[in-house]
Amino acid sequence: MNPERVYPGLPWDREVYVLGIESTAHTFGVGIASTKPPYILANARRAYRPEKGGIHPRESASFMARVAPEVLREALGEAGLSPRDIDAVAVALGPGLGPCLRIGATIARGLAVYLDKPLVPVNHAVAHIEIGRLTGGMRDPLVVYVSGGNTMIAAYAKGRYRVFGETLDIALGNLLDTFAREAGIAPPYVKEGLHAVDKCALEGVEPVPLPYVVKGQDVSYSGLLTAALRALERGERLGDVCLGLREVAYGAVVEVAERGLAHTGKREVLLVGGVAASPVLREKMEAMARLHDARFHAPPPPLAGDNGAMIAWTGLLAYLSGVTIRVEESRVRQRWRIEDYPTPWNRWLDEARPAASND
Ligand code: FE2
Questions:
Q1: Ligand 1 centroid distance, CA of 197 (Å)
Q2: For residue 161, how far is its CA from the centre of ligand 1 (angstroms)?
Q3: Architecture of domain 139-302
Q4: 3-131+304-337 and 139-302: same fold?
Q5: Alpha helix (H) ranges present in the chain?
Q6: Tens digit of each residue's pLDDT (9 = 90 or more) over 282-341
Q7: Cα of 132 to ligand 1 centre, how many Å?
Q8: Total-model pTM
Q9: Terminal CA-to-CA distance of the chain, rounded, Å?
Q10: Residue 236 CA to ligand 1 centre (angstroms)
Q11: How many whole angstroms from 306 Cα to the centroid of ligand 1?
Q12: For residue 344, how far is its CA from the centre of ligand 1 (angstroms)?
């Protein structure tokens, strides 16, 4: 990890500590980032696990309100800091679920006012990208962001990240989780990032043919989900359905990533988001990147899924670039697109842009 290479031009000689709060969906996380090694000083978190079904926004929010004090204390303890040592408080204001976002925002505003420190707005999707750039030392990657709520191909161009392809309906993580739940093979994540569908696919022999939908730069997964569930209903073997589902679902996102790589001319591929923890998807994406002589990286699982460290890290970059928000203006944004979040710490890329890039 050497952020000075990835983000040249920021005042790395200053000693700055930023606390970041994540609460966009199921995870309440508090991280602490610093301009000095090891850069990530704390990454405390608790995840809400519904007893059955998907995330219940209000249940998740009340879980967060309950665990917040202990997670906050744990993060400060891990970093060996007292609240007074913090220079700024960062918070993910979106995109995400309203009731959950409001818990994190309320705590962050309270802390900022109480400590009399600036509040820094962070876009959750951009935070996934920046933590991956830090752990992988990636200067200008093509980003593949796959999680329960997002599936997008993005890259930086002129002041902000831009989307080059995305899902037209449901996200990859949502597809896998919903199928696992309906097929009775939940909990979704088994171990070391392996999804229940990945694991079940290991028992497959003959993949069941399922609809593969890529439209231009975009993928579509809702027809795939319906077809996979129908295949189960008509008595196809579960392992074979999972194998078919896995191959089609991952194949489609690898294909749009490959198109994005060709289109942007980037030399690095960064896989982020909760589904980036899947070793099967990592392997497929890495093989594609290798084919194009591009460097590949996916952050280690504790930093791939939702976490507070990525909010703290992005908050640090924003704070060092002079980005803060007044408490009265810090409303949450459930559908905050990455194009609507300027990233001034990447401005140096606009000048250093290689000729190969055509944006
Ligand atoms: Fe996320």
A1: 20
A2: 16
A3: 2-Layer Sandwich (3.30)
A4: yes
A5: 3-6, 57-79, 98-115, 124-136, 172-182, 196-201, 222-233, 238-264, 279-291, 301-304, 308-320, 348-352
A6: 999 999 999 999 999 999 988 999 999 999 999 999 999 999 999 999 999 999 999 999
A7: 12
A8: 0.94
A9: 28
A10: 33
A11: 5
A12: 22
Determine the distance separating the centroid of ligand 1 and the alpha carbon of 248, expressed in angstroms.
Answer: 22
Residue indicated by tokens 């990240």: 161
* Tens-digit pLDDT profile for residues 117-176: 999 999 999 999 999 999 999 999 999 999 998 999 999 999 999 999 999 999 999 999
The residues spanned by each domain of the chain are: 3-131+304-337, 139-302
CA of 125 to the centre of ligand 1 (A): 6
The 3-state DSSP class for residue 148 equals: coil
Q: Would you give the DSSP letter of residue 167?
A: B
Parallel, antiparallel, or unpaired: how do β-strands 151-157 and 160-166 relate?
Answer: antiparallel
Q: From the CA of 278, how far away is ligand 1's center (Å)?
A: 14
Length of the chain: 359
Instruction: Measure 292 CA to ligand 1 centroid, in angstroms.
Output: 27
Going from the Cα of 128 to the center of ligand 1, the distance in angstroms, rounded, reads 7
The CATH number given to 3-131+304-337 is 3.30.420.40
**Distance of CA 26 from the midpoint of ligand 1 (Å):** 9
H or E segment and range at residue 45: strand 40-47
